[in-house]
């Protein structure tokens, strides 16, 4: 029995699973009509060391991944006032903060050990035009039901994921691939990230496009829905 075509899109941490699937190492994802679209985090090689050793920390602050990995610490802060948490994170990582520099708010940077995660993120005067009050309320109610533990568990498992990814060292993504990132994505501020994006074709043999979407931030599919949809449709028509 033939398998249906698979059109897979991943953003941020979900993108890592697509990278592995796109290698064709799994029989369920290796037909000629399969493809992947990655948003935000580019395809990159395995880090030279475990994330717990790679990401910075000192006496005063630690990289947000360390903070998220601490049992109950981030969970308690994030769930204390879920509406405020989401407003601050959505705004802080969006293109609405303007052109990014060292003073820009960044939910995915260093976290003060004294003041916690949310203290450095501004409370927006109003929601961005791509996020309605009705949509935000849906997200708030969903997190009130689920809590944040499920997402935080990913960060507690980063080192183990790094170990598993060793099985794919040197393996290319062979299916047609498309990459997009917002011009104001927080990830672009990380050292070497632009070079990693420029070199993706060495890891994805059938990379058909790499696009920077003007003015958009980390929430690319929400902030620039029309542009993202248009790029994806254009990509699908090449298959």
Short description:
This protein has 11 helices and 6 strands. By secondary structure, the protein is of the alpha/beta class. β5, α9 and β6 (207-213) form a beta-alpha-beta unit.
Plain-language structure description:
With 239 residues, the protein is of the alpha/beta class. It folds into 2 domains: 107 residues, 3-Layer(aba) Sandwich (Rossmann fold); 109 residues, no CATH class. It is 37% helix and 12% strand. The strands form 2 sheets. Strands 1-2-5-6 form a 4-stranded parallel β-sheet, with helices on both faces. A two-stranded antiparallel ribbon has the order 3-4. The longest helix is centred in the middle third of the chain and has 14 residues. The radius of gyration is 18 Å and the shape is globular. About 3% of the residues have low confidence.
Mean of pLDDT: 89
Number of E-type strands: 6
State the order of secondary-structure elements, H for helix, E for strand. EHEHEHHHEHHHEHEHH
Largest sheet: 4 strands, parallel
User: Class by helix and strand content?
Assistant: alpha/beta
Shape: globular
The N- and C-terminal alpha carbons lie at a distance of 22 Å
The number of helices is 11
Count of discrete domains = 2
